[in-house]
Amino acid sequence: MNSIANLKSVLTMGFALALALSAGSASAKPAGSKFTLTSPSFTQNGPIPEKHYWNQMGCTGGNVSPELHWSGAPEGTKSFAITVHDDDVPTGSGFWHWVAYDIPVGVTSLEEGATDGKLPSGTVEGNTDLGKPGWFGSCPPVGRKHHYTYTVYAVKTEKLDAPKGATAAYVGFVLWQSTLAKTTLTGTAGPRK
Q1: Radius of gyration of the chain from Cα atoms?
Q2: pLDDT band for position 11 (50/70/90)?
C-alpha cells in the first residue's frame, strides 16, 4: 500500500513540476533584441534640424523627411507602418504630420528624403491632418516648442484594411487592431522667433 501511495506522490509531484516548467517556458520571451527606432538626424527629446521643417505657414525648412532605422521587430511581423504626430498642437487630438503603411517586412530603414518619391514599393501614404497624403514636416508655432513623435508599428498583416483616403485617425484605429509591437522616437522643434 505504501508503494502505491509513494508512486502517486511521485507522479503528482512530477506532473506539477512538468506543468510549472511548461508554464514558465510559455511565458518566457524569446531571446532577441528590443524593438527600437533611431535616427541620425535627432536623438530622443533632442532638436529636429530645421531642414526637416515644413516650408510654409512661416516655417522655412526644406520639408525633408529624416532618415529612420528600426530593428528588433517581433516574430510574426508581416509589414510596418510609420506615423508622425505633433503632441502639442492645441486641437485636443494633436496633429498628424505623416502616415505610411504596408511597408514591406524586409525594410528596416528609410533614407533621408524618402517621402520624395523614394518610399519602398507597395507603401501607402495615408492622409495627414492637412487632409491629403504626403510628408508634412515639423512647423512649430512662434514662441513654442513642440514634440513630434515618430512611431514605427510592427504589423501582423501584409496589408492594412484601410480604404484609400482614410483619415489618420481611421488608419490609427486599424493599426491598433493589427499591431504586434511599436517603438517611438520623439524629437522637438522650435520655438521659432
Answers
A1: 23
A2: very low
Which tens digit of pLDDT belongs to each residue from 106-141? 999 999 999 999 999 999 999 999 999 999 999 988
Cβ–Cβ under 8 Å, residues 133 and 112: no
The backbone torsions φ and ψ at residue 5, rounded to the nearest 5 degrees and listed phi first, read -65, -40
The three cell numbers of residue 14 are: 512530477
Output the CA–CA distances (angstroms, integers) from residue 133 to 7, 51, 96, 159, 193, in the order listed.
70, 20, 11, 17, 29
Give the helix ranges, DSSP H, for the chain.
Answer: 2-27, 168-178
Are the C-beta atoms of residues 102 and 124 closer than 8 Å to each other? Answer: yes
C-alpha neighbours within 13 Å on the C-beta side of residue 153: 25
- State the pTM of this model: 0.82
Residue with cell 504630420: 97
152 to 56, 142, 184: CA distances (angstroms): 26, 29, 6
Question: What are the two backbone dihedrals, phi and then psi, of residue 162, each rounded to the nearest 5 degrees?
Answer: -125, 130
Q: How crowded is residue 11: how many other Cβ atoms within 10 Å of its Cβ?
A: 10
Q: Which of 77, 50, 31 is nearest to 181 (CA)?
A: 77
Dihedral sign from CA coordinates of 133, 98, 92, 180:
positive
Cell of 93: 487630438
- CA proximity to 182, closest of 151, 156, 149: 151
